[in-house]
Amino acid sequence: MLALKSRVYILLFILILTFGCSEKRTIVQDNVTANLNINSVAQSENTDILEGNEKFSAGDFDEAIKLYEKASKENKATAFYNIGVSYYLLNNTPMAELNFREAVNADPDFLEALMNLIAVLAEQGGEKAKEAEKYVEKYINSANHSADAYSGIANVFLSVNDTAKAMYYYKKALEKDAASPMVLENYANLLISIGEYEDGINLLESLPNRNFIIHYNLANAYFATGNKESAYNNAQEALYSDGASETGYDKLAQLFNKLKKYSDEAQTLRILISGNDERDYRVRLIKAYLSLAQNDKAIDEIDLLLTQYPKDEELSLLKYNVMVYVDTAKAGEYIKSLYEDLKTDKVLSYYAKHVCYFNKTQNEIRPYIQTDRNNGWLSLAKTVYALKQGRYNDAANYLKTANRENGHDYFAYNTFLNIKNRDFAKAASFAANLDLLQYDTFWYKLVIAWNLREPQTVLTLGEEYRNSSLISIRPPSFEFNIRPVLHDMSFTYRFDDKSIDTASMLAYPVFMKPDETTQFLITGRSALKERDKNSVTSKLEGIKMNNAAIDDFAAFNFENARQKFEKAAGNLTNNTIVLYNLALTYFNLGENDKAKEIIDKAFVIDKNDGFIHLISGLLNYRKGNYPDAKLNFEQAKLYASKKIGELETPEDEDIMLLYLSVLSGDRPSRRNEAESIYKSNDNGFTVSCALLMDYFDDYDIEKLNELKDSPIFRVSRVRNLLALRHTPIDQFKDIDDADRYYTLAYKFVMLQRGAAKAVIFNKRFAHDKVYLKDMVYVSIYRHDVNSGLKYLQTLSDMDFKYSELYKVSLYYFTWIRDFVNAEASYGSLDRMGYNDQTSFFYMLLYFLVNFNETRLNNYLKLYNDAYSADYRYDIVTAMMNLYTKNVSTFDSIIRRLLSQDPYLFDKMFIEVNFEKF
């Protein structure tokens, strides 16, 4: 059987060096030493050497050595040299070194012997490598060497990772012959070895006659650059090219394995086995068959090996691993009988895992693990038993006495525990060492990739699932958790750097000026038009109250403004201006339902009023009804445009209505343009105007700038919020401002920028329902369970009928997995008939986290009917399919969503975990 030198210190293949040889000897060209750092044996007319070379070619190195030793009396240099080569291939480097020294001593001009001595010294490193450098100098100085000789010296230095010296001698080689294919090939290998992949690839691609080595090195380099298609193409070319040694096929099989081309790996291993029936090759072939789901072939190969190695623990456990995929019950019987036969703790750890994974009761293994023995394998058996019982702390303690030498299960159990503890980064570090052929590896990697937001890995695993039969064995039970994301939280006062956020803050109440009829009444000529003095007085009082309310609004005293607008609405019935002002005030108070109720009344009076459409659009947008909001803003814009077109001198409010309706539309924020204007003019109002230049002529812009200092508009506040984009996080400070809208919008931007710790509770709003509701979301985002509960309790004491209380509490209790209180919150919302897109979404989250397939399906349909499917709908659907192990559908949904939005995982709101072991 051919025994091959296995210690090759570089991944690249090095060609045999060809030197000028003496007349008395030549170097035999063979495949045995191809791609190693030494030259092959020398030929001679001596009969013993000739017979020794025949034994050498047949792989019988021990017999070859005996014949070479006979020849050493007459042909010392050649015989010792050949003995050295034979010992090298027998993995006996010290004896190889000794004989190469003898050959050099016998013939100082024997350059091949000197070169091989340099190679074995360099390979051993340390002081030996330093000695090799001295011989290099002697070798170089001994003759006027060819380019190939310099290239060979460079290869030696490359083999010991001395790339600087390797580069030096490659350049010497290139000076000798810049067109030498061998030099160019080896130089390309150097470039690849130091990470200069593109230059190395280009050199190799330029070579006209490509053999096995060139194709392999190209495949390896392409693989390193991530070009798996080119790597595979070249690997296949290598497989059918000349010049392959056993080492070459060995490394090619390893590359096919990395590429997950298991059929090609199996074919390459069969070629290897045909020339060397080595156990390692056969074990790797078995694993390739397993990867191809050719389980019968795998078991046949194992059984053949077991006839050679009966009671071999490793082979027996490999057979168990294959049997699991064929018949888990029979695999269980096999591992049990194997333990009874071998009685080793390693087999016990497999037996315990099988029982805990596949059997309904674990009592049968309890007597075997209740022992005072202490080793890593027994610790794994105790660990899996504790995991199955849900005793995770005990399992973690048992694992402390195991280590990486205990293989896959050591890493698997650590991975599971870290996932349960939601430390996904640490779980990933353990999962990196999992055996890809084990049935639990896929699930660990999928959960970790999802939670670490690695979409490409999730897609790759989905593709693996479609193409592998190894994954469907004993899929785990999942559970889901909410991952708090700002985008999903129903903050009343958002500032997402969208133009509609600016429009929402700049929306203003409209002053009511007495019309001509009212003026006529005031001057005493009312009898011509109106005989009811009380009615006239009421209208005038309504106008006065409306305008007084606007002063309160400008001072951000929204509660006083609300009361006065309510009185104005009572005095001026069916007046859309007052209703708009009142709805806008409720909008600023965060009372969205009340604002909607008032707007609905206004629409009955005048469904074409532009201001009514504006506030309705702002409300619809806040509640997630985006299509309706867009229609509202279009109507407001049309109304304002028509009014402006009809008047020679447009009214200020019509210009502002047009401005706000355009700003509120779906025009995206032109951030770069806005920031450049912001830097040149520190004025948030000017920034907003700049976004809309193509909608307004010079007159309009001038009029807008005249209005920018009006107390009605939050211009300075908008400017401050925009400025937060340029503020370093460590300089963030919370604010205390009477304007609750601005205060909470400011807090939201702080959270958005990552300054969550800087957000403090403002006592000014300690009894403000909307403020408290938003602070619950702040607490959730900061993972502050206790503060969130405190704010919820205060809110409940203040107004237990407040619909937003139950909406936020549903999210909160689902987040902390308190399903009793979450169900109560859901029931309250359902009884109130409260629904908007966000509350519907929270219900979906609740039915997903507290998994209920029937409810989830019903509400998915309701959500789709009301709001149409969006990414949140799709993600929940994907999670439902993952829960029911319909992984193909899960993969299809995620694949489609990522094709539409590559940054989908940045706003992912669901975390995946294991329900139990």
TrEMBL record:
Signal peptide: none annotated. The keyword Hydrolase applies. It comes from the Bacteria. GO terms for molecular function: peptidase activity. Its EC number is 3.4.-.-. It is an enzyme of class 3 (hydrolase). InterPro entries: TPR-like_helical_dom_sf, TPR_rpt. Coiled coil: none annotated. The keyword Hydrolase applies. This is Beta-barrel assembly-enhancing protease. The lineage of its organism: Bacteria, Pseudomonadati, Deferribacterota, Deferribacteres, Deferribacterales. The gene is bepA_1.
